[in-house]
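Why does residue order matter? Because the sequence determines the fold. Keep that principle in mind as you read this record.
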Amino acid sequence: MLMNTFAALCAGFALNIIIGSPPGILNPENSVPSFLMKIERRLKDQYQESSEAHRMAGVVILIVAILLFAGIPTALMLLIYQASPVLALAIDCYLSWASFSMMRTKNELSALSRCLADGKTDKARVHLSKLTGLRCEDMNEDELIKRGVECAADCCADNVGGVLFYTALFGGAGGIFYRTVSLLRRSYSTRSSASDDFGTAAHKLWTVLDFVPAHIASVMAVLASSIYGLETEDCFDVYKRDRKNLQAAVLAPCRCVIASALGITLTRKTVFKDGNIQFLTIGDDIEISTPEDVRYAAEIMFAAGFFMLLLFGALKLTFVLLMI
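Structure:
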């Protein structure tokens, strides 16, 4: 069983690079948000219009989603393991594969970079909207670039670091569990503030789950940046200084180190504090942002993922060999 989880880790990563993500409803990026919309409409009729009731509904949504997308496949895999280890391994590998969307993110970011370099701003907005789920019609070129870099950094911490970490620990079941929580959290984060209470449970659980892998991913991102010849001396200093300037704190490590390596600031957040308006940013405005920054960020994300695969795979394989 331990060797199965190692095989699932390698197979899921490789399949995502070679084939991309699973199609249609087989891809959690499609099925989880669709499920969320359907069950939330039903629950809204059952719960009162209050923050407490909506938070309780969010707990119910989270539990049901985990059982449906992670619990049932895992139970099926365990039940058939004794009868057909090969079929159980195939299910494990599929769950791992379905957890990744790294190559989709990289391809969309590459297309975003090319469109911006060619002056095709409208097409660039379409690619960014596909990745983030945000409305991008009013974004100028500079904001599109910075949002693209943020997307690469967030994918490095979340879809790459988080999925690799939990797949290494628990196989495809761990990867799909983490990915389900992550997708629920992301679905709520791109919607209106009216949905914040529904997403509280998913956001809190995701914050706990991603804390360790996000910090490991940031270290690997610094390593990848140095290999690409970027300046990495101030990466961790920028992280210490700016890590609190982002609401989703576990995404801050990768955003800070990638912004520092590129020498740019990311999109600023406006806050009202002590009677004054303050602008919180990540990074230093050393270089003028260019479309190449998006491409570099995507390459850093991909390289960091490869380094994490080697790290987690080596640790997992060592553990398996010691247990034999």
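Strands lie at 269-273, 276-280.
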